[in-house]
Amino acid sequence: MSPTPPWISAPTARALRSSPDPVSPPQGGEVHKYRVAGALAGVVNGLFGGGGGIPLLVLLTRWAKLDAKESFATCVAVILPLCAVSAAVLLLRGGFPLSHALPYLAGGLVGGVIGGRLFRDVPNLWLRRVFALFLLYGAWRYLT
Amino acid sequence: MKAWLIPFFLGAGTGVLSAWGVGGGTLLLLCMTLFLGVEQAEAQGINLLYFLPTAAASLLYHRKNGYLNTAALKAAAPAGTVCALAAAWVSSSVDLAILRKPFGVFLLYAAVSMLLPKREKKTHA
């Protein structure tokens, strides 16, 4: 982002800085990239039962050139309906002991709130490193 | 009581990572199957359900903080949901073993791509 010119007042400059997306390119021309990324996430999730966020994140950051933090957060939002559909199928098939899942769900809710609050202050490098760690584990699982 | 506590704290811990979108579900799945003796199929089901409240809670904050790209979300989510259903439907008739190695290679590529320093654009508008 360019340095703020001196003739812009401090409040305006702050508003400009906090505008949602100073890094990403204009969104109009990128829609087809988002669609492809989403479709690929769906295919991976459907075939492997998870992991759709991986191609989604890679394509959003590397191809659509979205800001890293925006990509990680948007991935969570895109994967949520995919998981909801899979969960609905699972529950409709029945035979799933919901009571076993409840403590994990309650914990997840608390973790989600904590993670959501901390997200702004986590360095992008950490996000990328932790994610890479899980990718390496996945690669090892699939390649050996 | 103790039977509740460990899953609760495990869910809370991995929930932080899930909120960041960096693989909390994978860690939860691993801990359930390796340390808590949960069967793979049940662990996958729990993992799926666990993501719903976890992601929903984190998204409230992501939205408030302006991290959600609505254009990407609106384009990717419907495409993804349709493709996930289609892929799940055909997955039983596809030999997934053939896809394991290419997917593994892709994961390796993705890991390297995440670890390499991102090239910053030198020119600023």
List the helices and strands and how they pair.
The complex is a heterodimer of chains A (144) and B (125).
Chain A lengths: L9 H8 L13 H18 L4 H11 L4 H26 L4 H21 L5 H20 L1
Chain B lengths: L1 H19 L3 H12 L4 H25 L5 H22 L4 H20 L10
Helix pairs in contact in B: 1-2, 1-3, 2-3
The residue fraction in helices of chain B comes out at over 70%
Estimate the mean pLDDT confidence of chain B. Answer: 88
**Unreliable sequence segments of chain B:** none
Report how far the terminal alpha carbons of chain A are from each other. Answer: 44 Å
In sequence order, what are the helices and strands of chain A, one letter per element? HHHHHH
The Rg value of chain A, from CA coordinates, equals: 19 Å
Number of helices of chain B: 5
Total strand count of chain B, please?
Answer: 0
Specify the overall morphology of chain A.
Answer: globular
Give the number of domains of chain A: 2
Record field, number of beta strands of chain A: 0
Determine the mean pLDDT of chain A: 83
The main β sheet of chain A shows up as: none
Helicity range of the residues of chain A?
Answer: over 70%
Structural class of chain A: mainly alpha
The tally of helices of chain A reads: 6
Net shape of chain B:
globular
- Which segments of chain A are poorly predicted (pLDDT under 50) over 5 or more consecutive residues? none
Radius of gyration of chain B, whole Å: 18 Å
Description:
The complex is a heterodimer of chains A (144) and B (125). Chain A is 72% helix and 0% strand. By secondary structure, chain A is mainly alpha-helical. Chain A folds into two domains: 26-96, no CATH class; 97-144, no CATH class. In chain A, helix 3 (53-63) packs antiparallel against helix 4 (68-93). The radius of gyration of chain A is 19 Å and the shape is globular. The model of chain A has no long low-confidence stretch (mean pLDDT 83). Chain B has 125 residues and is mainly alpha-helical. Chain B has a domain at 2-69. Helices cover 78% and strands 0% of the residues of chain B. The longest helix of chain B has 25 residues, at 40-64. Chain B is globular. The N and C termini of chain B lie far apart (58 Å). Chains A and B meet through helix 2, helix 3, helix 4, helix 5 and helix 6 of A and helix 1, helix 2, helix 3, helix 4 and helix 5 of B.
